[in-house]
Amino acid sequence: MPKHEEMYKFDDQKFLLDGIKVYALRVPIEMIADKLAQKEYKNIILSGVGGTTAEMYAVCRIIEKYSDIPVYLLNAAEALAEKDRRITRNSLVLTASKSGDTPETVSLCWYAKKTGATIVSFVSMEHCPLAEASDYKIVSAEEGMENTYMRLYLFILRFLYRKGDFQNYERFADQMKSLHSDALRIKHAYDRVADANAEKYWQEPYQIWIGSDIVFGEMTLLTMCILEEMQWMRNRLVSSSEFFHGALELVEKDVMVTLVKGLGPCRALDERVEKFLQGRTQKLVIVDLEELKFTGIDEEFQYILSPIILSNVMAGRYCWNLEKHSGHDLSIRRYYRQFKY
Amino acid sequence: MPKHEEMYKFDDQKFLLDGIKVYALRVPIEMIADKLAQKEYKNIILSGVGGTTAEMYAVCRIIEKYSDIPVYLLNAAEALAEKDRRITRNSLVLTASKSGDTPETVSLCWYAKKTGATIVSFVSMEHCPLAEASDYKIVSAEEGMENTYMRLYLFILRFLYRKGDFQNYERFADQMKSLHSDALRIKHAYDRVADANAEKYWQEPYQIWIGSDIVFGEMTLLTMCILEEMQWMRNRLVSSSEFFHGALELVEKDVMVTLVKGLGPCRALDERVEKFLQGRTQKLVIVDLEELKFTGIDEEFQYILSPIILSNVMAGRYCWNLEKHSGHDLSIRRYYRQFKY
């Protein structure tokens, strides 16, 4: 690999090494998926709060696309309060928590366990409250959304493969091996754009973010968990399909808009928004996933990988460059987990 | 009824008369619901764009609460782009469009028709593109969300009753007869609060709106269709359950927050947010649905009616008072439906 310029707060070698560690989980993840796929489920429940519901959104869309099993993405706090009747002994429940102790998620898990549901959790350590409440755990401490998605995807696509719904799993999983080196190359290429945009826009008083389809969860993560929680930046996220019912009226010449042009069938909806935006704001950032795809991976898989493609350059680079220019460390919160509430 | 003070841009007699007209649809609506309930469906699809998806949210939550039939609330543009596999000849599709010609909804309807799905549309005129594309139409020109919800509720609850899932339908439907006079009394009582709040806050540069559960769709309608589209007011809507992952960091002493305290099992989540907000913002509006309930209706139905309870005072009064103070007519758009996009 050619020598790259150093990127702000980024360690190339650690990123590649993390990729190897996560890919090494392929076999244990497949073993769990294979075992679970032997049973028939009435539905699949994806649950968590905050970043977890955001990342599970892509998993939800994948199941909807390839399978006939009903799938529901539930906020853990609401599902628990309502004793959601869809959680039964015939449910497969997937949950996750980075800290391993998110109270809403852990409580929902215990509730689901009592109903007799089968529970798989993605956690970052062997022993934590969420792991204790689960039937199966997939443990991996590697941070970064590339790693989060890789674990989730290997699991769910293997599961669907065993159900006869995703024929090309082996080729997909083989190609995931090159994901990190591919991602790193793209990160380096995009970092200058990310840096320039961050410098230009970090002081915006209000931003609109627009996108559609399978990347919408990742966009929730970007706007909620990063812009709001970590940078205290006011923004409005809206889907390309709902944009024309409300949010469009907020667009003015000096309102900053970030539009993500995705891959797949809803790209036309993003393009419709793009056409509208041209000339209506002078502060438009377009993130076109067509230009940021992974070259080592077959075209047919790029759509389902698009949350990773987006995360690779945005959560992976743009947000760090925002920190660099704003001087507001991504780890500083005034409220979140600072005290009980 | 005692003589009331006149409310800004509101006609008491027309409101009551509209209520009578909508309630007169009870029998024809029940006939359609009864006929449709004879068939078994694999799922129920609720679809539309903008305000329609917002109002269908409550219907979705009601079906989830009372029935085991899988239900999905789909944005029509995305569902059509993806040829959503959940739409099949075994689907019951419910759609709506005030104008009757919303292109995304009409196109989805034709697509659903081709799959063989059964389609029911709520429209405001006998002949319109959406009506042409549907198998059954429920026609009613009466505007106002009270009327919209009443039609939807009579249909879906009658349907669930026939499926054995909502035993007390007859009592519910009988009590709906008093809804408008009850609603009118509460409107008058709340109008002074709405007026004072609107005067105080119509110039806010940014607002946060928080709520949970069955009223969240109505809150989408308030913030997206009214604040954004009709008043060009910047705001951020977040659920009580997701508030603690992102949006909380945006709360400052001078940031205006509207918190809706709902009825039912998720009220505890709203109260948790309320406790957090106390002292953290000096601009807090609390809309407590406990204090705005319909007195002529049994307690057990108040939860499912809560979107109407909320709409009655907010879309019904607060938003009109916003117009009064901002001087920005609710009917003025700069973009929406002003030209092709």
Automatic annotation (TrEMBL), chains A, B:
Source species, domain of life: Bacteria
Write down the SUPFAM superfamilies for this protein, in alphabetical order.
SIS domain
Q: What is this protein called?
A: Fructoselysine-6-P-deglycase FrlB with duplicated sugar isomerase (SIS) domain
* UniProt keyword Isomerase, yes or no: yes
* Any one GO BP annotation for this protein: UDP-N-acetylglucosamine metabolic process
Q: Which residues form the SIS domain?
A: 32-165
- Any idea which GO molecular function terms this record carries? carbohydrate derivative binding; glutamine-fructose-6-phosphate transaminase (isomerizing) activity; isomerase activity
| Record's keyword annotation contains Isomerase | yes
Q: Name the PROSITE patterns on file.
A: SIS (PS51464)
UniProt xrefs under InterPro entries = FrlB_SIS (IPR035488), Fructosamine_deglycase_FrlB (IPR024713), SIS_dom (IPR001347), SIS_dom_sf (IPR046348)
Record keywords, A-Z: Isomerase
